[in-house]
Amino acid sequence: MAKKDNKKNTKKQAPRIRHLCSLGTLGGYGGKNGEWSVAKKLKRIRKAGFDGFLGRVHMLSPQDVKDSGLIFACTTDMGGPEDVEPKLTACKEHGARCVNVQMLDHDTTTKVAVTRAREVMAFADKIDLDVSIEVHRDTCTETPEKTYALAEGFEKAEGAPLKMTWDFSHPAVVKHLSPPYWDRLAVRPDLMQLSNQFHFRPFNGHHAQVPALDANGKVTPEFLDFMEFADAVLANWLQTAGPGRELFACPEQIAGGYMLSVFGDRFKDVQTIKDHLGRSFKKHAKNWVPSADGFASGS
């Protein structure tokens, strides 16, 4: 009986993937009465099997978040030091489970970026908010070189690594990469393991967003190349994921400049990506066992 109980406890403690859908995915979706309301979009997201959603505080109210029954992963911009307290406080008040910060500008110096990151993380700790700095173009992490300079500067100053949100579509395009992507993108596997936010936008070396499905509803070759990389990312993360850890995974197929008119249904795309990520995570999680030091051994 004890062995069975141990198995049940281990299963309860096992790391979990939390699937998120960006509100940006449903931008422009609607019917004869116009674009869907935020409340309706959130209902569609929940019905499609997502655990949560990605959005910004100006898009909805704290009550909308509460009524949705979904995890809220909040994205916010961060400029000067005067932004830190009010913006992170607003995220907290809106019920954000985790926060993704797009910080500063493409021409920000590493010195300034390190200072701001330290201020952001210090205030996040003060109000007990789970915050990460995103790897994103037109921010202080625009290139891999700027990203890792920030990470190294922060670690040197704080004696601890910087928690980051990884969207690998940005460095892949900056470096014009060809598949397979792992060797060029996995520069700091340790920082990837520390992270709990990943924006799994399908990409190739020339396009930051490529369709998961073609016109016939079949998965695209480009998406399969991307999934080979995503599969390795998930395996790497699970290697050190301690009991109860959560990975927030958002397949960011969104409207705006990322979207081309020849692309198909973004909402179908993100559901396809979710299913593939879920199967990959489940495959690697089968080998997960808790270890004495609180970390895990996995695939």
Instruction: State the helix count.
Output: 11
Overall body shape: globular
C-alpha end-to-end distance:
28 Å
Order of helices and strands: HEEEHEHEHEHEHEHHHEHEHEE
CATH superfamily: Divalent-metal-dependent TIM barrel enzymes
Would you give the CATH topology?
TIM Barrel
Radius of gyration: 19 Å
Sketch the major β-sheet.
Answer: 8 strands, parallel, barrel
Class by alpha and beta content: alpha/beta
Q: Per CATH, which architecture? A: Alpha-Beta Barrel
Helix content: 40-55%
Strand content: 15-25%
Number of strands: 12
* The CATH C-level class name: Alpha Beta
How would you state the average pLDDT, rounded?
A: 93
How are the strands of the biggest sheet laid out side by side? 1-4-5-6-7-8-9-10
Give the domain tally.
Answer: 1
Low-confidence stretches: none
Keywords:
TIM Barrel; eight-stranded parallel beta barrel; 11 helices; two-stranded antiparallel ribbon; 299 residues; single chain; alpha/beta
Compact description:
By secondary structure, the protein is α/β, with parallel strands linked by helices.
Describe the structure.
This protein has 299 residues and is α/β, with parallel strands linked by helices. It has a single domain, classed as TIM Barrel, CATH 3.20.20. 43% of the residues lie in helices and 16% in strands. Helix 4 (81-93) packs parallel to helix 5 (110-126) and helix 10 runs parallel beside helix 11. The longest helix is centred in the C-terminal third of the chain and has 20 residues, at 266-285.
